[in-house]
Amino acid sequence: MKTNKNRHINTWTYWSIFLIFGILTISACTAKKQYHEDSGTVFHTLYHIKYQHDKILTDKIDGEFQAFNLSLNPFNTNSIIAKVNRNEDVEVDEWFETVFDKSREVYEASGGAFDPTVAPLINLWGFGFERRDSISQHTIDGLIEFVGFNKIRIENKRVIKDDPRMQLNFSAIAKGFASDVIARLLEREGVENYMIEIGGEVAASGKNPHGQCWQIGINKPEDDTERMVNKMQAIVPLCEKCGLATSGNYRNFYVKDGKKYAHTIDPKTGYPSELDILSATIIAPDCMTADAYATAFMALGVDGSLQMADKIKDLKYYIIYTGDEYGELRTMASEGLETLIP
């Protein structure tokens, strides 16, 4: 009888443990998903990430940033792009090829206005174009010889240059692609509601913590060299999965004959472009595409941008450009987008 009693007690103990374990398992599986926030610095710029999940994913996000840093950060001496620029024998990875192929697409669509090989000309002029009076045509002609995305290609996982002095800088597209990379990571983890912003380039899906569309602000161009003013020109609601990027020289422009001109280098002439767009915001199915075309808009001006946009599917735009008088700002939005912006 003693043995049977022990068996009875052991049976109840077993079932009690089983029931407790089951309750804990059900509770864990039905744990309420919360919104989490991550922020920091990556690629010399700030990032902000919001996502809804039952776990904090900071470590996985950091790991993805580190991997991306070793591929496309030109300031990291160990990155693939840095080795390409030094003409080392290195195989490119899938991320590098993806950005390279998209750059080719936008380069051709923009007639060469978007060009990741223009870095030597940007470096020549310097920030703010303080050196513009001392730059000669001879110097510019010498640099243009090795500028042009049509002079570079990928063969068998290796970058082939027509001129070894050519340099690649994907800064006008890489932040957008980085936002896409983090978005894909979150989606692999089962996240449906998220907003990733890296240096102003945004990838978003689902709803914000208030159950509404994500609200993304567009800065108003201001005469503010000390960067103390931060007024909003418009708020763009993102209600579907997409990417948004804004390219603009909000405080980095010059005035000539009473008109503002953005600090954009024309890769064909080597000189600053005298164009009317001060800010271009693009919405596309992914942030990499939006980022690249936002830069292309800045390089083409209003007329050239509209001609290009008419040929591209699933591209929405909101541009701020100069009017006929000094200080006058005008705006233009693509069909369908103007009704969304308050």
Give the helices and strands, then pairings:
Layout: H1 2-29, E1 34-42, E2 45-53, H2 58-72, H3 80-85, H4 94-109, H5 119-125, H6 137-144, E3 152-155, E4 158-161, H7 174-188, E5 194-198, E6 201-205, E7 214-219, E8 232-238, E9 242-248, E10 253-256, E11 259-262, E12 277-284, H8 287-309, E13 316-322, E14 329-333
Antiparallel strand pairs: 1-2, 2-5, 3-4, 5-6, 6-9, 7-8, 9-12, 10-11, 12-13, 13-14
Helix pairs in contact: 2-7, 4-8, 7-8
Can you offer a commentary on this structure?
By secondary structure, the chain is α+β, with helices and mostly antiparallel strands. It is built from 8 helices and 14 strands. The protein is globular. About 7% of the residues have low confidence.
In short:
This protein has 342 residues and is of the alpha+beta class. It has helices at 2-29, 58-72, 80-85, 94-109, 119-125, 137-144, 174-188, 287-309; strands spanning 34-42, 45-53, 152-155, 158-161, 194-198, 201-205, 214-219, 232-238, 242-248, 253-256, 259-262, 277-284, 316-322, 329-333. The model is unreliable at 5-9 and 11-30 (pLDDT under 50).
